[in-house]
Structure to design on (597 residues):
């Protein structure tokens, strides 16, 4: 899409208004709120530190409610600084504001770390006594998850130091990555484009545009590979030192603990997808190359629209209608909650310089509401991305009733509503399409699923090999690229030509920096949704939708096993992951069957 079209579309797109939190970054209420939070934190420290193991049940409830309230106030300020920075990464005043808020929040949180440390060490006898109190029982899931971390906790002083130094440690490197990525400009014909714009061109209808965009992306990343490799090396070493001191024996185990999922469950997922690559990516890209009359596709053509695809732009209001109608067909409550984001300008959708690329749903705090960021450019993939993030937003609203400390869903389950939302939209579009349109939609959906499952497992395998190698010594950009090429060749298969231009593409993947080992959660979530969809197709729709809404409303109060039990599913069983693979291969069968029509 050219710059004129993007500008025309941007004039019709919503941008969120953060003035409901603070008027702007100079709002005097910010300093006032921070002062009040400091006072509350100081009182909390004085009143409760060193005393938790002697509390009665009612005092425990009083204490944890005060702790949650303080954190709510802290994260509300953090929401404002994070979101305003995400849309203005090149503004030095906003950058300074974001950094200042981060420093102050980190300092306050450091003073409160005693609470979770002491709680995690409370003996079972005391907890059993607390649980006789009805109000205290509400907090049982929080205590259960917290106590799983007990074996890996360090001395309280060390924990405080780690939190305080995070702003000048890992967080500083994340910020450097974000600001560097946002400032990059990619030559394209006579223009200089942002990362979001150049990535969008990799799915352009014009093959020459895709090639130019791919080579431009590669060239600029190559020129910045030293800084990106340094960031990855530091992030990895920082993580290893801390995990090693905590007693984790595998490089993934701390992330799995955060996700409330066992190492063996993740291993089963990775092994299942890895073995299935030949009937997933290898099979599909062979079919797609044939559509282009080639034996192999260049990597910049991997997400290209099929040759017969019409260059159709979907207007924002049409995208809104498609998504809300799809959600409503499943359950009106889901659609009504999603509609709130459109009514209240909780979405920032326009493409502009300095704005974060990609998309996210920020949960904010339960007393407020989530916010969604997308870079909408009118493609079917953009509609799917919007549906994905709205799924997150609906999930976050439903889970908010659990309070800040128990609203957040583990990463492995956080993708459930988002991917399910995408599937609802996809099926609506498919049902209303002609044979040729069905072919395009099926191909697009299969590609999205392969990107979510197979490609993310390929990314995961890259992370594992990189972090394992980093234990011994720092890796050069070329050594990182060698690991990247080795793992990605298997992930995409022999029908995609990964030439030297592809060697540096690890440099733009934000999850490697923001949240190491995040990526497998996408595959987990997609496979989980595939299994749920399989059950949905064979269930009473009303009964299923009620169970589904209950599952989303649980937030972080239940494990994956507890959440899946009502649907007679279990991630411990191989058949669970096989259902995820079967869903994708069934769509491929459906696509290939259209060739005969």
């Amino acid at each position: 899409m050219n710059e004129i079209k993007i500008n025309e579309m941007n004039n019709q797109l919503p941008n969120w208004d953060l003035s409901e939190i603070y008027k702007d970054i100079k709002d005097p209420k910010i300093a006032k709120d921070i002062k009040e939070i400091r006072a509350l934190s100081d009182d909390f420290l004085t009143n409760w530190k060193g005393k938790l193991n002697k509390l009665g049940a009612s005092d425990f409830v009083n204490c944890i409610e005060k702790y949650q309230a303080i954190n709510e106030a802290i994260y509300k300020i953090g929401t404002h600084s994070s979101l305003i920075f995400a849309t203005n990464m090149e503004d030095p005043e906003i950058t300074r504001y974001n950094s200042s808020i981060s420093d102050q929040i980190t300092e306050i949180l450091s003073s409160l770390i005693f609470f979770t440390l002491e709680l995690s060490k409370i003996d079972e006898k005391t907890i059993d006594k607390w649980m006789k109190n009805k109000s205290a029982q509400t907090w049982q899931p929080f205590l259960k998850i917290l106590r799983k971390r007990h074996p890996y906790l360090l001395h309280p002083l060390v924990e405080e130091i780690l939190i305080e130094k995070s702003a000048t440690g890992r967080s500083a490197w994340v910020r450097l990555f974000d600001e560097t990525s946002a400032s990059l400009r990619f030559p394209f014909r006579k223009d200089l484009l942002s990362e979001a714009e150049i990535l969008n061109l990799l799915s352009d209808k014009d093959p020459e545009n895709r090639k130019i965009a791919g080579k431009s992306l590669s060239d600029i990343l190559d020129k910045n590979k030293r800084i990106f490799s340094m960031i990855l090396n530091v992030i990895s070493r920082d993580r290893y030192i801390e995990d090693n001191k905590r007693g984790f024996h595998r490089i993934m185990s701390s992330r799995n603990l955060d996700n409330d999922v066992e190492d063996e469950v993740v291993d089963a997922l990775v092994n299942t997808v890895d073995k299935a690559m030949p009937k997933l990516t290898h099979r599909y890209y062979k079919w797609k190359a044939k559509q282009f009359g080639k034996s192999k596709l260049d990597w910049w053509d991997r997400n290209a629209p099929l040759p017969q695809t019409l260059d159709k732009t979907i207007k924002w209001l049409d995208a809104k209608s498609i998504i809300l109608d799809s959600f409503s067909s499943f359950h009106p409550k889901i659609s009504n909650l999603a509609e709130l984001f459109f009514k209240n300008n909780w979405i920032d959708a326009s493409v502009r310089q300095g704005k974060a690329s990609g998309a996210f749903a920020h949960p904010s705090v339960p007393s407020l509401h989530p916010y969604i960021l997308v870079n909408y450019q009118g493609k079917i993939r953009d509609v799917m991305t919007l549906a994905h993030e709205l799924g997150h937003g609906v999930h976050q609203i439903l889970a908010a009733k659990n309070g800040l400390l128990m609203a957040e869903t583990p990463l492995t389950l956080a993708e459930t509503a988002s991917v399910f939302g995408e599937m609802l939209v996809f099926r609506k579009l498919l049902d209303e399409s002609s044979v040729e349109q069905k072919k395009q939609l099926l191909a697009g959906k299969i590609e999205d699923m392969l990107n979510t499952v197979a490609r993310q497992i390929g990314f995961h395998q890259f992370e594992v090999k990189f972090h394992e190698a980093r234990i011994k010594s720092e890796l050069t950009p070329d050594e990182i690229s060698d690991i990247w090429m080795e793992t990605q060749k298997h992930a995409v298969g022999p029908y995609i030509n990964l030439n030297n231009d592809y060697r540096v593409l690890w440099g733009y993947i934000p999850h490697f920096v923001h949240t190491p080992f995040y990526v497998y959660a996408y595959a987990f979530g997609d496979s989980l949704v595939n299994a749920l969809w399989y059950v949905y197709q064979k269930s009473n729709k009303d009964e299923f939708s009620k169970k589904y809404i209950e599952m989303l409303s649980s937030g972080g109060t239940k494990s994956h096993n507890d959440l899946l039990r009502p649907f007679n599913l279990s991630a411990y069983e191989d058949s669970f992951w096989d259902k995820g693979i079967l869903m994708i291969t069934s769509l491929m069968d459906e696509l290939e069957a259209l060739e005969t029509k």
Remarks:
- The mean pLDDT is 92.
- The radius of gyration is 24 Å.
- Residues 53 and 126 are 7 Å apart (CA to CA).
- The longest helix spans residues 57-86.
